[in-house]
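Re: weekly structure request thread

Next one in the queue (606 aa):
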Amino acid sequence: MTERNDGPVAFDPEAVEAKYLAERDKRLYDGRSASQDLVNDQRFTGYRRDPFVAFADREPLVADIDVAIIGAGMAGVVAGAHLRDAGIDDIRLIDQAGGIGGTWYWNRYPGIMCDVESYTYMPMLEELDYIPTRRYASGEEIRTHLDAIATKYDLTESALFHTDVRTSEWDDANARWILHTDRGDVIRARYLVMAVGVLNLLKLPALEGMEDFKGRAFHTARWDYEYTGGDGSGNLTNLYDKVVGVVGAGGTAIQCVPHLAESAKELYLFQRTPSAIGVRDNRPTPDDFAQDLAPGWQRARMENFQAIMLGRPVGEDLVDDGWTHHFAPLRAFPRDPDWSMAEWVSHVEEFDYGIMEEHRQRIDEIVDDPATAEGLKPYYRYICKRPLFHDEYLKAFNRPNVHLVDHPRGVEEVTKNGVMVDGKEIELDCIVYATGFEPESTLLSRRAGHKVIGRDGITLEDKWVDGGATLFGMMSRGFPNLFIMPAPGQQAVVTVNHALVTVLGAEFIGSTARLLEETRATSFEVGEAAEAAWCQGILDKWVDSSKVMAACTPSRMNLEGDPGAAKPLTGSYGGGFGDYFGFKQLLAEWIDAGEFEGLEIQRARS
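Done, posted below.
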């Protein structure tokens, strides 16, 4: 692993800035982020079909339960586990998918794995007495683990899969949430938990002619193994005589391209912007890994990683990978008290340039063809796109059947026989859209996928039109008995390892539910003053980074080149990524006090 480089580098700030801006400007054009309507446009609704579990008819359910959890991914499963530990009996997970897993249910493309080490990412390892098999777990191992959590906490049997909630509405007279689904279900719940996930809205680019393509086309989040053959480990034998095109060059593409390269007759990667791809160095978990682990080891490891991400001193870097070597020191670059702000910025930019030069040099070392290598080189700041890590992707371009099609506007049009790029048609048998999901910053009201109606008819969409309005990022006035699992843009905190915040949120929700039960509360409501104070705290810590991010190449990190569209009320507790440790302490003290400060509580009569 490369150590941080504090020595001199050949860095010409003006030349670097000019190069980066020129590369950015090539990629700024109207409509670059346009996507298809996969819900209402019948030409494309089939892209959402579940290819993994067959749809089964069932009778509509009419039920009165304790907790309805919308979402059966990591957030929903971990929240359900902690609610079960809190003594809540009647819990139902509801999800559009055919089973447990969320993102890890849908993403089963060949080569899928997490980019955060498995010992910190996979939640509740100690509770299940499980040690991941590899440093970076495959998607299948993660999905299986989440399914094991759901089984252990008896969440699967009662879950409603292949079920889409159409409305959730608060019934004030009976202190219940009433949910209506597309299966005719009517569910009345004391508590509603929104655990809809971070990356849950499949993104399919809006390209002219897509519906006319005569070959096979699918999104990576609905991988068509019936067509390709093979499974998540590769061996896509049905592609031996097929010409395949991959649209997209982000985290999904770098994982599936090596497997497609091994199997397809010809493979074309259509790239708008190359990714920064660091060393992955994946390897099996050592046999003695668990030998000396003490109780609480996973939380300690998670928080060790989080401390490094926030620039806090630690005795040992337990994770020791590209995140801690590059991303962390750049995000929390130390400032010498003798430096002026301009000097500090200069040092940051020089360090950033050194990181990116290392990535570009790695490409030269691996990729044989100079023109292809140049096309794969990222020319932007490291913080402009989520960094990626892989050891096989770049090598795939040394295969004679793999072709990089690098153009700043990417695919211009889909034809009956293939795609148009820069005015030239490339004929294809299959198009794989590796275009991911809508960004993490997408407002909760959209990610929820249905109308959430609170007290006096207020909708979550209307209330959150300017960003979040919450207490702790997990409750919102006007929506009694509603818990919201924390996520980016929701006034909680943000981490590279989202599992850490998921666990923290689930613990808080479980503990709060236990307190409510112990005090015989029928409902809770966020106080007006408490919510206003929390929102003001978010605004006070908001730092407008739009000027810095505007210099970035367009990506989901800068709202596809429009960072000024970021809303201050979508900020984090403590500003920036957020003060995780302060946030954790605040929640713990609130629970320990047991006084529901900031909430209005209604209790049952004796």
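The domain at 62-201+440-527+570-603 is CATH 3.50.50.60 (FAD/NAD(P)-binding domain). The chain has three domains: 13-37+202-280+339-433, 62-201+440-527+570-603, 303-330.
Next request, please.
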